[in-house]
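To whoever is on call:

I kicked off a structure prediction for a single chain this morning and the downstream step that reads the tokens threw a length-mismatch warning. I double-checked the sequence; it's 371 residues and nothing unusual in it as far as I can see. Pasting both halves so you can look.
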Amino acid sequence: MKISLFGLDVQKIINSEIFKAIHEVIESGVYVLGENVKKFEEEFSSYCGVKYGVGVNSGTDALMLALKAIGINEGDEVITAPNSFIATGSTVALCGAKPIFADIDPETYNLDPNNVEKILKRNSAKVRAIIPVHLYGHPVDMDPILELAKEYGLYVIEDAAQAHGATYKGRKTGSLGDIGCFSFYPTKNLGACGDGGMLVMNDEELAKKARLLRDYGRDTGYTHTILGYNSRLDEVQAAILRVKLKYLDDWVEKRRTNAKIYRELLDIPDLVLPVEKDYAKHAYWVYVIRAKQREKLQDTLAKKGVETAVTYPVPIHLQKAFSYLGISDGTFPVAEKISNEILSLPVHPGLREEEIRYISRIIKETSKHGC
């Protein structure tokens, strides 16, 4: 049996709709910033429960343009989690600012508000923003983060790249801070057939700034009011995403059903399963377990045809790219411990119950010999 981690093949059932949408774009002759981008921005921002959406070429650029839109610059500091994908930290650094990491909650693996507060109480002079990351699809506990931001006069940029369809106290992720940033990388809950991203927000001025930044700082024609970038979501990807958006809620519910089956089957001592806090609706981009002998378990699953991944094996502060920060091993013990134990299992909407039972049997059998 071969089981892929992300199961993109399941989306082939809507290929006829996608091919039709692509054909219409080609027939229109409009490939950049046309009606599909405009409509998708409206549809996705409405889905998130906010007023504005700005389509860009990736989730990374969504973060970068969000930081630029709020004025992050050289000498500023931005608080975030050390266990995210590197783009959460690198975009801060590429703005000339310094990422300040706060250790994570040991249950949700998200930014711990208590640790954020400790940083701010110690020295908040240069801190301009907080980037909470809704890792794996579980929302950060946002109320304490938002309260701290209000108290210290900070912006909040949500990294919701893995959390399409997740909610916090009934509100969609991406709608809670000043700006929400999404990735539409193909493996995401809502994925394009290539790269794509979006910023969502309620602030009209931030939306205007983001639109300028994504298109060379262009006002109209060949007049440019600020220095900007080439970071536009193209028409073909927007058309594809408009088709897929109609299925997103159903796909998230199937992920949640699959996660429930895992939980019922994987009652194994020393195996840590994902939590879902009372305030959260988990969107399960991946199903992340923790095992003491992760490499052994991953190797066994691979030999049995099950694709898994470690997301992420090296925390951002220990990446060579960030060695200039001088942060030593052991500085963030929770994030570092978890990075050595986590393993992402398939949970995608195309996964069948028999496949979940197959994966679970392998894990149970391996656990008898210590995993």
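Update from on-call: the warning came from a stale cache, not from the record. Cleared it. Sanity check on the structure: The first helix runs from residue 15 to 28.
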